[in-house]
Design brief:
heterodimer; A: 210 residues; B: 246 residues; Ubiquitin-like (UB roll); Fumarate Reductase Iron-sulfur Protein, Chain B, domain 2; 5-stranded mixed β-sheet; 8 helices; 35% helix
Chain lengths: 210, 246
């Protein structure tokens, strides 16, 4: 879970930085999208690097889900008789919603791909410039789309707050001297990602970016 | 104090078991939780009923024998306290208290609230020891130990093996117990020669017993009567990863 999670967090950081290009204008955003597809050209054919990265990402997602499902199944087998009364003592809403949070994120990613990648549920359709899809997608009239993104991104943030710290723990980096710093790092990365991902849709819906 | 208890009753391993309600009257707030159960058991014996079976030994919070899930919390809501050291003054008069055994497949119920924790013994047997020539006790300070390491090792060594960590873990994982046993040896000079093989053997045994995997929820450390920190699990993971990389 830790290693595949780290792959996905690195992807999210790059994805967030790419999204922020919308603040430099439609052309800047479109050029970035084009650059991603022409990386290492002419050495590698069009879209080679991007396709390799996409495959790597999909493998990470699948392995992450596989690990989560096997952990869940092991947990179920380890406690065949459930408690009549059960009261959590560890505080942390983020920790308790990891599994359902993961399912929510999967559903959101499906919607997100249909919207901004394939344009199926986007007013601009597939044959349009990426920046146009983004700006029309979060148009003030489609405020409910922005709301879905808002909820989903906050959910991703909570998933990361526990997930990143948990990865440090799984990889054996945590100890009593470093704990505070590691928890702070997990919190900071999560907050930066949430803010970075929410800025473009909110700016578009509230008319700052047109 | 007058209390209503809902207690798990199960004749033996083959019995399905069920919750049974008992009224207990005139409980003194100064009684320990186990003494309160003793009072109920004396009455049950006089009435010709089978007394409620529960594990206990020292009743001083150091042996690790007692333990039950009280109102959904292993050892009850009082932090860093074993069931025997939990006193009735922490409950309200007229309260309804639910009492269940530790729930985990590797801890089968023997009877009522007694579970078989032999799985822990097998984890210790797999590597929870140091192979040193037994002889007369060495001189103090003949092997220097950093103060920080001594403190951390001692914190881990306070584990009494009660099993509350497994009972509280939503995954039924024994990671905190195994990690405590690994950490208290792996931080000391005497534990170094077998450090990695010990971690591997003990973690593999833990998995073979059918405990769940750790997802770092922290429920274990919250109920641990000795307050073993979650860092121990990171130490275990670190040793285990190194052992597998070798």
């Amino acid at each position: 879970m830790a290693v595949t999670g780290a792959v996905m967090v690195s992807f999210l950081v790059l994805h967030m930085l790419g999204n922020l290009k919308i603040f430099f204008g439609r052309d800047s955003f479109n050029e970035y999208a084009h650059w991603l597809r022409t990386l290492l050209e002419p050495f590698a054919p069009y879209r080679t690097v991007l396709t390799i990265l996409e495959i790597g990402l999909v493998v990470a997602v699948v392995l992450h889900m596989w690990a989560a499902i096997s952990l869940s199944r092991r947990a179920g087998k380890a406690r065949p008789v459930k408690y009549v009364a059960r009261k959590s003592q560890a505080n942390g809403y983020a920790t308790h919603i990891m599994r359902w949070g993961g399912v929510t994120i999967v559903l959101f990613v499906i919607w997100h791909l249909l919207d901004l990648t394939f344009g199926v549920v986007n007013p601009e359709g597939f044959n349009s410039a990426p920046a146009d899809r983004m700006i029309s997608g979060f148009d003030p009239s489609r405020w409910w789309v922005t709301l879905i993104y808002f909820v989903a991104v906050v959910m991703v943030g909570m998933h990361l707050r526990h997930g990143i710290w948990s990865a440090f723990q799984t990889l054996g980096w945590a100890n009593r001297d470093r704990n505070k710093a590691l928890r702070a790092t997990a919190g900071l990365v999560s907050i930066v990602l949430v803010i970075g991902f929410l800025l473009p849709p909110l700016a578009i819906t509230f008319g700052v970016v047109k | 104090m007058n209390l209503t208890l809902r207690v798990w009753r199960q004749k033996d391993q083959s019995d399905k078991g069920r919750m049974v309600t008992y009224k207990v009257e005139d409980v003194s707030p100064d009684m320990s939780f186990l003494e309160m159960l003793d009072v109920l058991n004396e009455r049950l014996i006089l009435e010709g009923d089978d007394p409620i079976a529960f594990d206990h030994d020292c009743r001083e919070g150091i042996c690790g024998m007692c333990g039950m899930v009280i109102n959904g919390v292993a050892h009850g809501e009082q932090r860093a306290t074993t069931t025997c050291q939990l006193h009735m003054r922490h409950f309200e008069d007229g309260a309804e208290i639910t009492i269940e055994p530790w729930r985990a497949a590797p801890f089968p119920v023997v009877k009522d609230l007694v579970v078989d924790r032999s799985a822990f013994d097998r984890i210790i047997q797999a590597g929870g020891f140091v192979s040193v020539p037994a002889g007369s006790a060495p001189d103090a300070h003949s092997v220097p130990v950093r103060k920080e390491d001594a403190d951390a090792a001692f914190d881990a060594a306070t584990c009494i093996g009660c099993g509350a960590c497994v009972a509280a873990c939503p995954n039924g994982s024994a990671s905190l117990f195994t990690a405590a046993k690994i950490t208290h040896l792996s931080l000391l000079p005497q534990g170094q020669p077998e450090r990695l093989s010990r971690a591997k053997a003990m973690v593999d045994q833990m998995d073979a017993e059918g405990f769940g995997g750790c997802t770092n929820t922290g429920e274990c450390t919250a109920v641990c009567p000795k307050g073993i920190p979650l860092d121990a699990i990171a130490q275990m993971n670190s040793d285990y990863l190194k052992a597998n990389a070798k």
